[in-house]
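Why do we bother with holo predictions? Because pocket geometry can differ from the apo form. Keep that in mind while you read this record for flavin-adenine dinucleotide.
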Amino acid sequence: MYDIIVIGGGPAGLTAALYALRADKKVLIIEKNAFGGQMTNSPKIENFPGYSEISGIDLADKMLESVLEKGAEVELDEVLSVTSDGAVKKVKTTYSEYESKAVIIANGVKHRTLGLEHEDELTGRGVYYCAVCDGGYMRGLDVILIGGGNSALQEAVLLSDICKSVKIVQNLSDFTGEAKLASAVRSKPNVSAVFDSVCEKLILNDGKFAGVEIKNTKTGEHTELFADGMFVAIGLLPDNKRFADVATLDKYGYFDTDESCIASQGVFVAGDCRSKRIRQIVTAAGDGASAALAACSYIDSL
Ligand SMILES: Cc1cc2nc3c(=O)[nH]c(=O)nc-3n(C[C@H](O)[C@H](O)[C@H](O)COP(=O)(O)OP(=O)(O)OC[C@H]3O[C@@H](n4cnc5c(N)ncnc54)[C@H](O)[C@@H]3O)c2cc1C
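The structure, written out:
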């Protein structure tokens, strides 16, 4: 019987584990893929306090090291479900089943991708999914931005301040984000938009990102757009349905909690998986601390 099982070994889960271990709790972290989570896809992180620059993999290693040093147990396995049997939580994985007094779900989100050839290998090297995280690498350069909803428009405003030009490619006939944001984007002299167009192919030059080939969905016409980098802002994909019995979801599929991170009795959520405005490493880590401290109080009160 563990005190706390943490689902997901990203910055939210690892920080939660760190706080719980420092409160003398017996902690198991279950990670299905790579400890460190999404940041392991980032070659350079420049907004984590204490490091002017660090690779995502190095930061992930440091976070993992610090919980292992303090006695965390870890398993590489996928959690399939969590059930609550009063004070005992049952965590079923692909290979096993575990019990704990409390569970912290920190399973993150995925960025929707275009699914194009070469997209994976160029991620972090010309193809990006987060302007707040990676916009700085495109300072003074020309970028393409795919998407036209609220997050894409926010990213366009941010990129317009740091990039030479931003060309938005939207599959519909107009932006679908808030009118106020759309008009802010239209007022930027270095932002232009191509509507009714989908991205069909990535253009490479010497193995490096060089642009995209787009197709007008009304006329069928193909056009090549050249740029130094591309941001894909077509949404995030939470994967929370399997936990819906123990944590309520909002209409977008995120866990419907505030920064208290409390989902139900003995179940806590942390990081990108919950409903929030800013999804970053530091905000995920902040949630990890809140969730762990709430879980420790819950356990101590049992
Ligand atoms: C390419 C890229 C670059 C980024 N750069 C930056 C940056 O420079 N600065 C910054 O602040 N933020 C950056 N971000 C965003 C940042 O990485 C996320 O906000 C942060 O990782 C969220 O942390 P998390 O712990 O909530 O989730 P995640 O990092 O997504 O971690 C969740 C973990 O849970 C695991 N998991 C999911 N489901 C299960 C399951 N059922 N069973 C077991 N394990 C499971 C996943 O494999 C994953 O490892 C970047 C994101 C990307 C994709």
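The mean pLDDT is 95.
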